[in-house]
Structures are given as structure tokens and as C-alpha cells.
Amino acid sequence: MAPIKVGDVVPDGTISFFDENDQLQTVSVHSLAAGKKVILFGVPGAFTPTCSMKHVPGFIEKAEELKSKGVDEIICFSVNDPFVMKAWGKTYPENKHVKFVADGSGEYTHLLGLELDLKDKGLGVRSRRFALLLDNLKVTVANVESGGEFTVSSADDILKAL
């Protein structure tokens, strides 16, 4: 499947997360993003070094600034189960705006065309590192990393595009 790109409508699919009442929710991506400006940023794995120390903290630290520029939702996405994503989210007590969501089986990652094969590292098939800016489901920015790099998908990169 070809990677998602600017101009595409983001495919619909389901993702899971724990809501503010600690209830597991499985919802369609379209239900979360329709009619909104949304940042969907993906990471190869919860609790992994670059994801935990650089990628996620950048979006948490810049969340207010991103929201002041019209962003309605900031969603951190990974091929992990929702319990792992919930536990990972709790390691950022200062977080008020980033929603941690799970693509447990990698099906939505496949629909995006953003799979990263890390079987040789014992991690299976994961998501590439990326940051998408969606405006009413349409991709207006698609910053997708190569391999394990972290050069184009930061919160600062999205701020520059807003």
C-alpha cells in the first residue's frame, strides 16, 4: 500500500484508547477527526527511547501553542495495545492535551501505508515515525520519517507548517 500523502483523505479505521473515565473506547478515526484540525503523530513503540524522550515530550510541551494555531486534537498513535498506551501516557503527568491511542494489530497503520518492519529487532511490524496534519480528514502535512530517524516529524516541524 502506498504511504499516505498530502491531499489524501485519511482512511477510516478503528483505534482504541482509554477515555478520561478510564473506559476503553474503540472508535473510528473519522469520528475523531471529522470537521476538526487534528495532528496524528505515530511512533514505532511506546516506552522506546526516541519516542519517549523526544517525540512525545515535544508535542506535550508545544500543545498549547499548537492549539492556539487552531489544532483541535493531538493524537499519539502506535502499534501497541491500549493498555500499554494508557500506561505510557501516565508517565507524562504534565500532559493535558495529547491523546494516546492504540492500533493493536497494526491494521490502521497498514491502511496508512506506514508500516515499519522491525522483526529483525524483535519488535514485529510497527508504525513508521510520522506526523500528519489533518483538516477535516484531508492530509495537509505528511511528515514521514525514514527508518528510525527523527528529523521531520516533531512538534516544531508541524508548528512551522501551521
TrEMBL record:
Q: What Enzyme Commission number does this protein have?
A: 1.11.1.25
Q: Which Pfam families match?
A: Redoxin
Q: Name one GO molecular function term.
A: thioredoxin peroxidase activity
Q: Which UniProt keywords apply?
A: Antioxidant, Oxidoreductase, Peroxidase, Redox-active center
Cited Gene3D superfamilies: Glutaredoxin
Q: Known PROSITE patterns for this protein?
A: THIOREDOXIN_2
Domain of life where this protein originates: Eukaryota
Q: Which GO terms describe its cellular component?
A: cytoplasm
Against PANTHER family, the record matches this protein to: PEROXIREDOXIN (PTHR10430), PEROXIREDOXIN-2A-RELATED (PTHR10430:SF8)
Name the chain's protein. Glutaredoxin-dependent peroxiredoxin
